[in-house]
Structures are given as C-alpha cells and as structure tokens.
C-alpha cells in the first residue's frame, strides 16, 4: 500500500483505538443482512400511484405490521394503522375528526406512538443503531431512542409513562407520529432503483423528480422518454420538438408552461396562423382535467405546429449521419404533395388529416423563418428554466444508461441483438461497436451533449435523439417510430413498429446468460431487470422469463396502458431472502386508502430464494466496506503495530 495514502488515512484515524474501532464496526456491518432494494419503472408522470408504492414499500410496510400485530388486531385495524404509516398527515386529520373527546384522543396518541415505536424497532432490526439514528426525525432522536431501547430490567415504568405524557401535553404528538411514520417508510426500503421513464404521458413527472431528489438512496436507469428531456435541455431542437409534441398530445402543456416556466406564446401565435382544427391532433384528455372547446382547439393547433417542426428537423440529421441508417424516415421528402399520398416499403397510402401549410414540397426540411425563431426562443427558455435545470442535473447525477448492481443488470430498454442473438453492431463515424461497448459510447455522447448545451448540431447532440428513436438504441428497442404514419395514414399496417429481436430472444435463458457475461456478471446468480415494454398479463404474458434470469417490471403505471396490461404495474423487491415480484392492482386514490383502507393488493411471486440469507458483505456496498477494512488493516500494521 502506498505510504503517502496511508499517511493521509492516518490523519483521520490518528490512534490505534480509532483504527481498531472502525475495523470492528465495518466488519460487524458487513455481516448484517443486506438491505432491501426496491425496483420501479415506467412511472410516466403518475405521481400519486408512485407515491403510494413508495410509501407502502410495495407491501413491505403492511407485511411488517402483520408480522407484529396479526394475533391481536383485526384486518381493519391493520389497514387503518397502515394508512397512518403511508399518509400520516391526512390520517391524523381524519382521526381527530372522529375522536372529538380529548381524553380518547390522548389515549389514541399514547397507543399509536407505542405501536409505531414497536414497528420501527422491528423494521430496523437489521440495521446498526447509527444507521437507525440517521433515519429518525432529528428533533426527537433523544426521546425516540429512550423509548426504543427501553430497559426492561429496571423498573422505569413511570419514567417512560412520563415521556409519553409530556409529548402529548406539550402538543408534540402529531409531529412525532408524522416523523415516526416517515422513518418507517424509510427503513423498510434501503435503496430505490428507478428503471426508467419518469417523464411523459402522465401529469406530474416534476413531482416525481422532487420526490426522488429528497429520497435517501436512489439510482436511475434512464428511459427513452427521460433521455428525450435530457436531449432537449442539452440543445437538441428535435428532442425539444418531441417533448412539446408529446405534452400537447397528452394534454400536458401545463408541465411546460406552468411547471417549468417555458413561454409557449410564440409557438401558439405560429400555430394560430397556420393551423385549423384537426381530428388527428386533438389531445388525449387527462381524466380529471376539463378543457373548454377553445382550449382544445388551441392545443390541437400547437400539436400540429410542433409535430411539423419535428418532422422537418429530423431530415438534416438523418442526412448528415448516414450511419444512423434512417433514410426510410425522410418522410416529408417521400410525400406526393399533389396526390396527397406517400409510398412506404413499396406500398402507396393515401394521406389524411394532413397539415402541410408550412411545408415547401421542393425543400420540405426547410423551417419557415417564424418556425426557426420559435424554436430558438423555446430552446433559450428551456435552457434557462431553473427548475428544469435542477431536475435534469439530478437525472445526470443519479442516472446512467445501465447499471450493474449486486450482481444484476438494470436496463430500461434492451441490449440490441441481431436475429441470431449476437450483440448487434452499429457503426458510428468510422468505428463499429456492439454490446456493452456500444452502450458506453451512447452514454459518453449523452454526457458530452449535456456538458455542452451550446453545441446543438454536433454528433453527440444528434446521438441523444438517436437513443430516443434509432434502430440500434438500447432504450428504444424498435426498428422505427411510426409517429408520422399514426397521424396521417389510416391503414394500421403502416403503424407497426418492429421490435428488436431481443424481445423475442430474451425468453431464452442462454441468451440472457450471454448478456450477463457481456457485462462481466455471473450468469448463475445475476438477473436482467427490464422496464419499457408493458407486460400483457391479461393475455397470459409472464413477467418472469428465461427461467428467472429476466424480469420485466413494466406493468403500466401509465394509465394509458392499463387496459392492455390488465394490472397497474409491477415492482420488484430484493431483500436478504431473495427476490419477489409484486403486481399492483389499479390505484384509485389516496382518499380511498385513507377512508376505506383499500390498499393496492400486492400479489407476490417468488422469483428467487437465497439458500442462505444474503449479507452486506456480498453486495456492492459491502465490496466498498471490505476494501476500506483492508486499507485500515494496512494502516494498523504500517503505523501502529511494532
Ligand atoms: O401513443 P404514443 O403515446 O404517441 O406513443 C407511441 C410511441 O411511444 C413509444 O412506444 C415509445 O414510448 P415507450 O417507451 O413508453 O414505449 C414508441 O414506440 C411509439 O411510437
Ligand atoms: Mn420506455
């Protein structure tokens, strides 16, 4: 070990006792059972449903309550207490409404605090005291620790009773209960993985981002929709056109205007000038959002204006990057403007609901001066939105294209494969890449583009768009995105998006083992954890594939997909005993949980069972601990043992 490094380490551990204490501490921690990992994906702006899954730890909170109180409580009492742990502020209000008499309220406080302390003590049994302390509400640490580590041998009954009495009479019960509830939520899940697609379709991706920013331990594997937002912020005009188009299509322009403060006025002016009503561009209305005819018309016009800008902007990129292999997608060039039809793959289709008022058939890629200006203003506004900057920086800091974690491979979309199951090759400039190397190249371009928002037409910025929609992208996983066809061609045949062979081949264990090997993971123990494609349980599709090597957890938080999946999302739990897949039923509302105790039923399926309880030392975190222990042992020898 390098003497200089050890000297530096000795500054922190400046006595033999300190070194020894730390070694003992770390060794002990490394023998504790591993913490619970929680995997979610495809949140698509559904903040309420996400909150619920997060707060109930995919059923873990209720499981712990059951373990403790099943003998003495009814199902109703269990549900009631669970609702308090999930939504303490709201539940407190309800309870206070029910218990108007002060004495019964105080009695309820007294019991509830005791129950919560019991629950915390149980939920933290696999953590060190120091870790638990960090999870406690700061202002009450001392009191809670007194109650937690109650010394049963000495008769301190009146001492503990006095603590309860004082908390209540000093008006601190509500605050303490809220704090304890959040501590419980935090303890049941040690680490959260978001396997992509926070943005688009649903109404509140920004609130999800804020929740993640405040989460104690999280990582993100970018989804194709997240990358689209990163691309817009990084200066890609075509990504920017896409995010606005999708927001218009799903009646979510509030996110752009009100949440991120981006001025849509110039775009609206342009839209009013060139576009009329058009059935193909009317927004899909959000359930609880009522719009006037006038507003619907405005959105319909904006939707057309931005879609046409998008189609134009795609052309020069496809032309300057021949290795993107997207010449099939030069759609505005393929349109026969006189006959109003298009020929694709040898077949001619009539076009309907067209809105080509700003297109010059001789030069369809050309933006009108006004369109150009609108895009410049939008980009300026996007890149100067303080809130968007905060959210995008967080996505970059905690995110990556894929992640190797505790032996598993986490990836939103796919590992591009050819028909035979080999890693699919892509040429970029004059080099060819595949497999892990290709993903690493994608990621380095994305990071470069983000670090250089002033460069807008460079390869890295174009590459971010490619990751959204290109045939070899590990996030898109399809051969083409038929947005144009879905707007303008009636024949559904033209709407088909062919999937990468990966989606067929991932049923095969050998293929999955090969992929794990490609990422230097142990195929006997690792799994691939995927989001992106809704599992159609309704049609008998199984989310657990390839003899358990492949787990697909997109069950559709997104309301738009619930009718095809038949459920409202999967999540995955990985604790020291193994992995469990949880299927969630449709989440109605927080109010429903609070008043009726209905909780999204969680059907668990065992994916894997550890033969022996897995310990911290066998995890990513454990690896770091063991390295630190080894350094400290070197220090001990070098400095203190003579
Ligand atoms: O119907 P919409 O919302 O326009 O979305 C359809 C598009 O979304 C995609 O499915 C990609 O989004 P997902 O990652 O959510 O699947 C494209 O393949 C498809 O063209
Ligand atoms: Mn996706």
Question: What this model shows, in words?
Answer:
With 642 residues, the chain is α/β, with parallel strands linked by helices. Helix content is 50%, strand content 11%. The protein contains 28 helices and 17 strands. The strands form four sheets. The chain has a seven-stranded mixed β-sheet. The protein has a five-stranded mixed β-sheet with strand order 8-9-12-14-13, with helices on one face. Strands 4-5-6 form a three-stranded antiparallel β-sheet. A hairpin with a 2-residue loop joins strand 8 and strand 9. Helix 14 runs antiparallel to helix 17 and helix 21 packs across helix 22. The longest helix has 28 residues. The radius of gyration is 28 Å and the shape is globular. 42% of the residues are buried. The model has no long low-confidence stretch (mean pLDDT 93). 1,6-di-O-phosphono-beta-D-fructofuranose binds next to helix 13.
Q: What does this entry show, briefly?
A:
Helices cover 50% and strands 11% of the residues.
Q: Structural class, judged by helices and strands?
A: alpha/beta
Largest beta-sheet characterization: 7 strands, mixed
What level of helicity do the residues show?
40-55%
Instruction: Give the strand line-up of the largest sheet.
Output: 7-3-2-1-15-16-17
Bound molecules: 1,6-di-O-phosphono-beta-D-fructofuranose, manganese (II) ion
**Residues in β-strands, percent:** 5-15%
| Oligomeric composition of the shown chains | single chain
Number of strands: 17
Mean pLDDT: 93
Instruction: Note the total helix count.
Output: 28
Q: Report how far apart the termini are.
A: 17 Å
Estimate the global geometry from the Cα principal axes.
globular
Gyration radius, to the nearest Å?
A: 28 Å
In the predicted model, the low-confidence regions spanning at least 5 consecutive residues are none
């Amino acid at each position: 070990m390098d003497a200089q490094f050890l000297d530096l380490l000795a500054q922190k551990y400046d006595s033999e006792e300190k070194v020894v204490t730390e070694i003992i501490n770390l060794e002990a921690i490394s023998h504790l059972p591993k913490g619970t990992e929680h995997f979610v994906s495809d949140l698509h702006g559904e903040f309420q449903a996400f909150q619920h899954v997060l707060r109930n730890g995919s059923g873990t909170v209720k499981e712990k309550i059951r373990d403790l109180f099943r003998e003495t409580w009814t199902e109703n009492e269990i549900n009631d207490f669970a609702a308090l742990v999930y939504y303490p502020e709201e539940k407190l209000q309800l309870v206070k409404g029910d218990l108007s008499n002060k004495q019964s309220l105080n009695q309820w406080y007294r019991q509830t605090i005791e129950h919560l302390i019991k629950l915390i003590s149980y939920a933290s049994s696999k953590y060190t005291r120091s870790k638990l302390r960090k999870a406690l509400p700061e202002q009450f640490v001392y009191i809670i620790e007194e109650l937690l580590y109650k010394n049963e041998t000495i008769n301190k009954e009146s001492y503990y009773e006095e603590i309860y009495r004082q908390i209540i009479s000093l008006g601190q019960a509500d605050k303490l209960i809220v704090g304890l509830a959040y501590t419980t939520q935090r303890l049941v899940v040690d680490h959260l993985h978001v396997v992509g697609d926070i943005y688009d379709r649903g109404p509140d991706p920004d609130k999800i981002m804020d929740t993640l920013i405040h989460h104690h331990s999280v990582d993100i594997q970018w989804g194709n929709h997240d990358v689209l937002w990163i691309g817009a912020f990084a200066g890609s005009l075509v990504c920017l056109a896409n995010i606005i188009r999708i927001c218009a299509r799903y009646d979510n322009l509030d996110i752009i205007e009100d949440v991120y403060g981006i001025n849509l006025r110039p775009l609206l002016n342009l839209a009013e000038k060139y576009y009329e009503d058009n059935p193909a561009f009317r927004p899909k209305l959000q359930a609880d959002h009522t719009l006037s005819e006038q507003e619907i018309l405005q959105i319909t016009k904006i939707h057309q204006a931005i879609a046409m800008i998008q189609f134009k902007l795609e052309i020069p990129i496809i032309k300057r990057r021949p290795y993107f292999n997207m010449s099939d997608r030069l759609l505005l060039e393929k349109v026969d403007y006189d006959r109003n039809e298009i020929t694709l793959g040898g077949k001619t289709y009539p076009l309907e609901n067209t809105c080509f008022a700003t297109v010059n058939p001789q030069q369809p890629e050309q933006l009108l001066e006004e369109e150009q200006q609108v895009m410049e203003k939008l980009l300026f506004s996007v890149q100067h939105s303080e809130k968007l900057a905060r959210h995008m920086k967080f996505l970059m800091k905690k995110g990556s294209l894929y992640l190797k974690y505790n032996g598993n491979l986490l990836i939103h979309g796919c590992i591009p494969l050819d028909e035979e199951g080999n890693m699919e090759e892509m040429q970029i400039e004059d080099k060819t890449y595949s497999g892990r190397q290709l993903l690493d190249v994608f990621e380095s371009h994305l990071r470069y583009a983000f670090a250089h928002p002033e460069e807008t037409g460079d390869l890295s910025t174009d590459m971010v768009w490619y990751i959204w929609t290109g045939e070899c992208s590990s996030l898109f996983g399809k051969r083409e995105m038929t947005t144009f066809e879905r707007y303008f061609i009636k024949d559904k045949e033209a709407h088909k998006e062919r999937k990468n062979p990966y989606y067929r081949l991932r049923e095969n264990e050998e293929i999955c083992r090969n992929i794990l090997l490609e990422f230097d993971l142990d195929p006997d123990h690792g799994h691939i954890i995927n989001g992106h494609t809704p599992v159609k349980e309704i049609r008998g599709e199984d989310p657990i594939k390839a003899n358990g090597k492949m787990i697909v957890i997109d069950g559709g938080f997104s309301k738009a997909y619930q009718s095809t999946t038949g459920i409202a999302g999967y999540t995955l739990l990985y604790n020291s005993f193994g992995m469990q897949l949880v299927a969630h039923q449709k989440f109605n509302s927080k109010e429903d949980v609070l008043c009726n105790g209905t909780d999204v039923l969680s059907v668990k399926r065992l994916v894997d069972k550890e033969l022996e309880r897995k310990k911290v030392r066998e995890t990513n975190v454990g690896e770091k601990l063991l390295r630190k222990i080894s350094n400290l042992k070197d220090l001990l020898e070098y400095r203190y043992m003579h």
